[in-house]
Amino acid sequence: MTAYAIAHIGPGPVNDDVLTYVERMQGTLDPFGGRFLVHFAEHEVLEGSWHGAPVLIAFPDLPSARDWYASPAYQEIVPLRTKHLPGDIILVDGVPEGYDPSRTAAELRSAQAQQD
């Protein structure tokens, strides 16, 4: 099942370190089947606040995403970004084909009823 790395990269200076990080990113993703779906794209905030840039990277599965983040190649370049740009990054599994959120709601209702 497809998994995703979702990042909220805060505002900060775009300097040589950050540009080097961006230039080298794809090379860290390739061995793990990672590909950018969103990268510093224009966005519209509908609820809450979002100061910074969105990044969304797809991987074949969650183990591949974990292995990418822990890889020596990525860990070598990540300080180039973190020294200059704050960020939050999560790894998350996608939903399977045909996912129905009403089934999830029904399961949550059932679990809640058992607790009451």
From TrEMBL:
SUPFAM superfamilies: Dimeric alpha+beta barrel. It comes from the Bacteria. Pfam families: DUF1330 (PF07045). Residues 2-95 form the DUF1330 domain. This is DUF1330 domain-containing protein. It comes from Streptomyces cremeus.
